Amino acid sequence: MCGIIGYCGPRPAADILVEGLKRLEYRGYDSAGICVRSEDDLSIYKKKGKIADLKAYLPETIAGSTGIGHTRWATHGEVNDVNAHPHSSGDGSIAIVHNGIVENFTPLREKLEEDGYEFVTETDSEVIVHLVDSLYEGDLERAVKRAVLLLKGTYGLVVMHKNEPGVLVGARNGSPLVLGIGESEMFLASDVTAIIAHTKQVVYIEDGEVVCLTADGYRTSDLKDRPVDKTIDVISWELEEIEKEGFTHYMEKEILEQPESILRAMQGRIESEYATGHLGGLNMTRQELLQVERVKIIAAGTSFYAGMVGAYLLESLARIPASAELASELRYRNPIVERNTVYFAVSQSGETADTLYAMRELQRKGARVLGICNVVGSTIPRESDGGVYIHSGPEIAVASTKAFTSQLTAFYLFALMLARMRDMSIEKGAELIRYLEAIPHLIDEVIDRKESLIPLARKYHRAEDFLFLGRGINYPVALEGALKLKEISYIHAEGYSAAEIKHGPIALINEETPSVFLVPDDALREKVISNMKEVKARSGQVIAIAVDGDDEVASIADDVFFVPRAHELMYPYLMVVPLQLFAYYTALELGRNVDQPRNLAKSVTVE
Ligand code: AGP
Q1: In this model, does residue 74 exceed pLDDT 80?
Q2: The predicted structure's pLDDT at residue 502
Q3: Centre of ligand 1 from the C-alpha of residue 38, in Å
Q4: CATH fold of 449-591, please?
Q5: CATH number for the domain whose boundaries are 3-235
């Protein structure tokens, strides 16, 4: 999604803005720009393309120590220099950067044009700068407040005026905005990643709030101009965690650090003496947890597939009805909120609009919604009724990997907790904990075998279609494997229940369509083998992810990747890692931009 940065302080703004935008590259974008106040004027530099293109375009030196910057992920208007942000008022006195969608921009634009304002872009965002201009009477903060009251939709916004040197005004509704507090300098950003190099002291701006800042201080207030007291949070992770540390791509680094990230997700959350889980942030007493009669999970993309595994675990271990549903579907289905039901909103970024708005809809219907999120201080965990941080550390690659396995870990722990409150014995609980605690080591073993996936990527990377097939708890993993491949290699891939293939998809099978089968040694192994044979009988190519020593599967498949043996409920961990790596190597074969695949954003903060 769009990236925003603002700076006011003693240092040259341009370098800080460009460096901050570079750290936001991972969010996905198609153009970038900055505005700096220098010699009493606002100078705007913006370009289609990457930050490198913008840097090449910038003058050698740009004077001025107040500025704003933006990386644009186009929602309205084509990708070109003109539509890039920042946008300025007609006389160049005001500049803005905006993340979000102005849903009523057409009537506003018509009214402004009637009043003589000329528009030069196709964007919805340009409406905002002219609106502020039309309401400006010498007080930028006041003009911004009056302007945003007229907006319908979402905004994370930073505005500057040439007549108010050293002042930035930020406003937020639906798109993230965070204030960074430095030594005699202040920052605004859509994501702490942009400013962590300068400060770890941050203030999260909430919906309906406005922040006015100068180098020496800031004021937060609401749209009625009432002061709002805010707490200062301190970011817990280090800058180097968002560096590649010698890896070619963030995605590779994040796949390979899953043993550590899973350990972090478990840390301090297992009560060995009672063989149960301990999730402190749920804001639910054990008595309340005992009353839980059903669990519903909402999410998008990879997080949705983690939720599907979570639902399977809750039903299997805790014998509680559980289901996962796409947040974007639930929100507009006028959902029926039932008593004694706990909802989970699963989101790595904590900013996904589909999931955030579905959570809000559920909460307004009286639901208790807990978050399972990675980014501390992001909107979903701040607005949820409690929840679990998965502590994966910053996930920079657009394709989610380590967050997925840490989301699984949160569900394993929650399912263990509820199971031990119901029928699961302490012995069974201890057994499950042993299986869980073995996972990081088993994933290390899978990672040790990663090189054997490279020839498979070389062999199959020209395929135009893939099927990914799994059953039971591994069916969501097949969906995730398909998503990984399609989003970074751009090859069409579909995930399916292996059983379902004979109800239609088998018509797709031919010599050029590889089918990737997940074949753990669980109760459904024989069924999956039958499905494999159905594909082979139709000259389909079969790649199997199987368990060490499974010679039968190896004899049927064209190619096989073995994972270590484990408890049947643990295979989602072991089956997903080879699929992540296969997608990664295939994308490399195709020369794709692995960390920032085309058209994608790391956090989709628009519907
Ligand atoms: C996953 O690889 C994709 N980047 C995407 O599907 C992502 O999972 C989805 O947009 C949800 O993001 P979230 O977890 O931050 O809510």
Answers
A1: no
A2: 87
A3: 39
A4: Rossmann fold (3.40.50)
A5: 3.60.20.10
